[in-house]
């Protein structure tokens, strides 16, 4: 909303008075706040002067190693390349300006940047680079490195980055201070800038940042590459003289001298390798493996421990994603009809041992999940987009289709065929045909063969009613390339878990970011645009966020951009009995980077609940 100069002046004076003890005027004369931390909403959990996060052992020994696994392959060491598949463990290479904890949704603490100063209207932020900050060759990290990092991603990175930060400009104030100006004051965007990854300029300025990297990079983080065989394994070694090892955000973390990832062709091979003792830690994704596969001498003797620590984090929306840019999926009636053939209850009982719960919300496990009918506050927002949204948004609570779980879905199939008929498709001679006599057929793209076990029952249900679904298994590189170019009909995708309705929703759903790989469905919808813009503009108003988040949830679910799958309210992890583990775990993560190798077999060690 536009404000008069007088109103701005009065507001700034009020805020300035409230923070008089810590505020100063930056070069522009706009009141600012100096701080050691940033928090999107309310006060951060950790106050100035804290020494370590609550979920670490600050005295954990640093030694030994851990072996993990990855599925597929990799062909470079650069996650920001516009093509290729990056090696596992990439995040260990580089540090951010500031870092969050795994106990909070949106708070940041010093890492490369030791302090911040920001305008009370969030129109700029100044970050002071810690004078002790060094890259992995011992050279200082400078403000120039930070500006270079922002500009190189802006110029050479993915298109959605350029769109999101189009109103941001970066400049060096002096050797250790960098300033970012935002044309429109935006606290969340300001905080995302503070989490920016820093790359050493001298390494990258002579390289094409958009291309895959086939030599180990010069990093700024706690680990660097020690050994590798492209596509087969990679070994990271802890940087012994890592300058930030004892900072509060890192104390008690990164305790392994080496972290190795071995690559396996598929999940089945990886599981067999784990049972053979080839690696140390497994985050199990297969319900069947968890229910029946963890048996034998190594388990009976306690050499491998299984644990199910509760998962308190928001649940991601995993689903079978429609590419609605394909003509065959543009009609919402078609998408709803196909969802009726996905028999979750039968799949859960017969393939997953009833371990899962059906996902029904893009804010699952949070207070922003839409339940019941819209509240008056939600209706006030939804009225602005009534003409663009399905009528059910206003009068029906969304629930995914439910079957009896006995394998017979005739009631669901009858409704599906009614929808197909409305959309111009008819069942003739065992095939579902359109007016031109063309059969309804599409391709489902996967890269992991384990996915087929629940796609085959879906395909079988479709075939009974004349629909042809071809499951195409491609290698991981081809999968990534086709995803980026949206060259697919349908695939198994994940919409990231959202602890609150953040402006990240723009990249996920807003049409300005339709080229984003996160907008897998290719959504370009005026109602979704309005709601995501509205949410981004009200990040500090919890009442508005609550109503707008639930309103958006209703619009997304009733548009059937995907067929919802399932989630777990706990982790399924297994690990070799040789680790020390802190007594408290982080709220939103397993906390593997806080573990350490025990001096001998850690008999009796279990993963402690919160």
Distinctive features:
disordered N terminus, 27 strands, single chain, 610 residues, disordered C terminus, Dipeptide-binding Protein, domain 3, six-stranded antiparallel sheet, globular, alpha+beta
Structure description:
There is one protein chain. The protein has a domain at 317-567: Dipeptide-binding Protein, domain 3. The protein is 26% helix and 21% strand. The longest helix has 17 residues, at 542-558.
Write the layout of secondary structure elements.
Layout: H1 5-18, E1 23-25, E2 31-35, E3 38-39, E4 63-71, E5 98-100, E6 107-110, E7 113-119, E8 124-129, H2 143-156, H3 159-164, E9 168-174, E10 177-182, H4 187-194, H5 201-204, E11 223-229, E12 233-238, E13 256-264, H6 267-275, E14 281-283, H7 287-293, H8 297-300, E15 304-307, E16 317-322, H9 332-339, H10 344-350, E17 357-358, H11 376-382, H12 392-395, H13 410-422, E18 426-428, E19 431-433, E20 441-446, H14 452-463, E21 468-473, H15 476-484, E22 490-495, H16 504-509, H17 526-537, H18 542-558, E23 562-564, E24 566-567, E25 573-576, E26 579-580, E27 596-597
Helix pairs in contact: 9-13, 11-18, 17-18
